[in-house]
Amino acid sequence: MAAELIIDPNSGFCKSNSTFYSKRGPISLPVDETINLTTFISSHPHHGTTALIDAATGQHLSFPEFWTSVEALATSLSVDLGIRKGHVILILSPNSIYFPLISLSIMSLGAIITTCNPLNTKSEINKQISDSKPVLAFTTPELVPKLEDSNLPIVLIGDPESPPPTKIKIISTLTTMMKTKPRQSRVAERVTQSDTASLLYSSGTTGNSKGVVSSHGNYIGVVQTITSLLKLAEGELELGNKTFICTVPMFHIYGVAWFVATLLACGTTAVVLPKFDMHEMLKAVEKYKVTHLPLVPPIVVSIINSADEIKKKYDLSSLTAVLSGGAPLSREVVEGFVEKFPAMKILQGYGLTESAGIGSSTYSLEESRRYGSAGLLASSMEAKIVDPETGECLPVNRQGELWLKGPTIMKGYFSNAEATANTLDSQGWLKTGDLCYIDEDGFIFVVDRLKELIKYKGYQVAPAELEALLLAHPEIADAAVIPFPDRDAGQFPMAYIVRKAGSHISESGVMNFIAHQVAPYKKIRKVAFVTSVPKTPSGKILRKDLIKLATSKL
User: Fold this and answer.
1) Which of 74, 105, 227, 303 has a CA-to-CA distance to 20 between 20 and 30 Å?
2) 317: Cβ–Cβ under 8 A, 6 or more apart, which residues?
3) Residue whose C-alpha is closest to residue 455's, from 522, 550, 364
4) Could you tell me which residues come within 8 angstroms of residue 398 by beta carbon, excluding any fewer than 6 positions away?
């Protein structure tokens, strides 16, 4: 008989197997293997009435209208277009009330969604198409030209104002397909929890973007994890009268996890902004009495910096919580936000595309005040801290690579056995590539990306540590630190700085500010001033772009 695990109730650490266990407890998962995500979400009892609102047009979709449209679209895809289990379908669209509808219709058939950033270039989109091999694309009239070299049949989301380019093969419109009556001739293939639901491409901050294969079971785990967290924060019966605004990109795991899956299961209302604009967002918060505002860290900072002006222009009294993801918030940001908006909770989370956006989170201001932390391990998630050099599993307060294991961890990378083997071990542990430690109370602290550590004369320097110090300077609005190649040292830290309005801080001013606070090997030895720091939609710094810029003149 296996020995009973002895787990420290404070840290969640078990000495016998060097594993950290979630203090949140387990989530409830369906034992029926033959249930798919769409069926799972639609079967949830809830008290909600309006599912989705288009902030630009005011168009509403009630929950009954939403699920009727899902069934109509699925019927049309199956009967009229011959879409079958295993087919990949591309969604190239800005945020829309139709994005969740299209996604869940496709998934209900056992077909697979692959999503793409509408800002991507034609060549970037073609690269993803070449890799994922979709049989069909959903896109808007404005984005059609980006698919003209793909030869893909296209379903239009919205009506075109002018005829599409002659090379484009438009086979239907979403409006037409949503009028389809459900028919007995629809092919109903069995779709199980282990079947693939999505093929999302990781942001590629440290290398080539890879297709992340997530299953229906992974997303069911996402729904249950986020729902349990919201119930912790809001109460069991309160979710049906909450209103979230969708500011995060729906093509990203953050958007898919929350707005395609979880909120529809909870019965909450989602107000959708077609594109992010600060003032349009704040107008929508006021108009639709939004209660929850999911954001990425740069927007949180921007709101703090403009708080006085914002509070004069907009009534934000309905807001009870801001949810931040993408990167941990610093002490200055959390305290700055609480000072400006004392009636709001600020919650945050950590996750990867490879973990379907799930990893750790905070659910209260008290937890968010564990400054620099990404929160406690998510329900049913396990973690290890592994020494990247020796492979040794480390205890509390020791830095190493964070490994995660749980119901939301991906199946692997699409058509990339080598990358999968390097990232998932034989027991299902995901090697996150993040340098972390877990403290004596079970809070995870993300120090930096392992691949982004700067190697100065054999010493390792974490860019995030220097960035946090730089952001504390009263004249610096934003900052990024990268490795700059050097013949003698190997690499040294270089900073890209965005000055605040009216600031004249110099290169020596930046370097001296840091030099007084860090060990000599961590000093910044080169500075460049820029108007903005390039970032992914989730707020991660695109260091590879800055490295390319810095080294282009060498």
Assistant:
1) 227
2) 343
3) 522
4) 385, 437
Dist. CA 285–CA 287, nearest whole Å: 6
> What are the C-alpha distances in Å from 233 to residues 285, 295, 343?
20, 17, 14
List, in sequence order, the alpha helices (H) in 306-446: 307-313, 331-340, 365-368, 417-423
- What are the pLDDT digits (tens) for 416-445? 999 999 999 999 999 999 989 999 999 999
Task: Say yes or no: do domains 62-213 and 453-551 share a fold.
Answer: no
- Strand 243-246 versus strand 269-272 pairing type: parallel
Average pLDDT score over residue span 255-263: 93
Phi, psi dihedrals of residue 467, rounded to the nearest 5°:
-65, -40
Is 76's pLDDT higher than 90?
yes
- Where are the domains positioned within the chain? 13-26+277-449, 62-213, 453-551
Q: Is 151 left (phi over 0), alpha (psi -120 to 50) or beta?
A: left
Q: What six digits make up the tokens of 63?
A: 């929950």
DSSP states along 363-385: -SHHHHTSTTEEEEEPTT-EEEE
Question: What amino acid is encoded at 125 in this protein?
Answer: I
68-72 mean pLDDT: 94
Q: Above 90 in pLDDT, residue 546?
A: yes
CATH code at 13-26+277-449: 3.40.50.12780
Average pLDDT, the chain: 90
Checking if the pLDDT of 62 tops 50, the result is yes
Residue 236 predicted with pLDDT over 60: no
Count of CB atoms situated within 10 Å of the CB of 537: 17
pLDDT average, residue stretch 348-368:
90
Residue count (the chain): 554
Residues near 538 by beta carbon (within 8 Å), at least 6 away in sequence: 203, 248, 252, 254, 296, 325, 326
Which CATH class name applies to 453-551?
alpha beta
Q: What is the distance between the alpha carbons of residues 520 and 494, in angstroms, rounded to a whole number?
A: 14
Q: Render pLDDT for 501-532 as a digit per residue (tens, 0 to 9).
A: 999 999 999 999 999 888 888 999 999 999 99
Query: Fold for domain 62-213?
Result: Rossmann fold (3.40.50)
β strands within 256-344, DSSP E: 269-272, 292-295, 321-325
**Amino acid of residue 138:** F
Cβ(506)–Cβ(529) below 8 Å:
no
